[in-house]
# Entry
Amino acid sequence: MSKIILCVDMDAFFASVEQRTRPYLKGKPIAVIGSAKRTVITTASYEARAYGVKTGMNIYEGKKVCPQLILVIGDNEKYAYTCMELERIYLTFTPDVEVYSIDEAFLDITKSHHLFGNPETVGIAIKKAVKDRFGITCTIGIGPNKLIAKLASDVQKPDGLKWIKPEDVKDTIKDLPVKELWGIGQKISAILGTMGIRTCGKLGQTPLSVLRNRFGIIGMRLKAMGLGLDDSPVNREEEEPKSIGHSMTLPRDIWEREEIEAYLLRLSEMVGRRARKNGFIGKVISLVIRYPDFETFSKQKTLNDFTNDTHVIYWNVMDIINSIRFRDKVRLLGVSLSTLTRDPLQLSLFKESRRRKSLLQTMDRINDRYGDFTLIWGSYKIQEVDSGVISPAWRPSGVRCVNFK
Ligand code: TTP
Ligand code: MG
# Structure
């Protein structure tokens, strides 16, 4: 029996929440931005989109296409709260809910839809529950798997509901460009393009051996995608993370070594703390640098031992940075920890290490309670701390539940 999966995606999520909580913004072209000086538009209301305002534009670009655009500084707490409450609504329809990003979720209603009627009735009921509770609209896609449900959710935005039934999958995706499929990024679609494969129909017909030769193991997945197949389950638990990282666009481009170091310590602390909170240790440390012309590069270092200690991360980031010759000022810095494994929580034999671990745990507990950077290392000296915009990848629990206060 075929599964029935729903993909629920809020419409202009941050902007809708702002319009709902500040009624004077209703019906107006608004864009939600971060509080940092050089922020970009995270999303725009549909009224603003009609003028061509898009996610990723900076304020000037937004104002240029829509001079009456109202800029609203985002409120992470509101979005995270709404995301958590939405999950509770979904759970009244099925226990199989996967919060995929801050405003998207997959629901497996295969076993539960008959309690409410047919799958469409469930979709209508969810849309109503969301509207009643938050006054915002969402678009729901229904399909026999996550791939098709996600595709369906993009078709009728905003405030839509689209059901692609199993028997309609083949025809629906036949002429669809491969890059429209969830999971096929620019890189893969460009390679497929060079092989003459531009549509899903063509992808599905391509012999598996051809795809395997070019893409290795991913070839199998691509072939299945071309046929509209996807057997990935709707997971309540998030899969094991591959890396834990934070980056920040600096309030201004900087050369100054001391300032760069202070930001790197802050980023190392954010990474270390998230790893500790979620019980991970990692072996590879990466530094990301973006120059003012947006050229971005990263450099890695593999450690001998796994760690989640802020200072070990920081010292190694410093080693990396010492090996780099800057060609310009720095616009963005990022630090990440990868090749992760679960921290076996073994008590170290070395006293110093044990003492440091308990100190870190105490700091983490206080910071969790009162917000990041309530307690900071002595050498950490940044005056201007901009609160960033919550990441769309934020989730109510697990490693992507970042404290943003
Ligand atoms: P999306 O679902 O991609 O966009 P949206 O909900 O604003 O609009 P749509 O109606 O097309 O679904 O992202 C959800 C939220 O995540 C969005 O409201 C703002 C935030 N976001 C960012 O902060 N940065 C980004 O680059 C993107 C794409 C989204
Ligand atoms: Mg959305």
Observations:
- The mean pLDDT is 87.
- The pocket of magnesium ion (ligand 2) is lined by residues 9-10, 13, 103 (CB under 6 Å).
- The two ends are 46 Å apart (CA to CA).
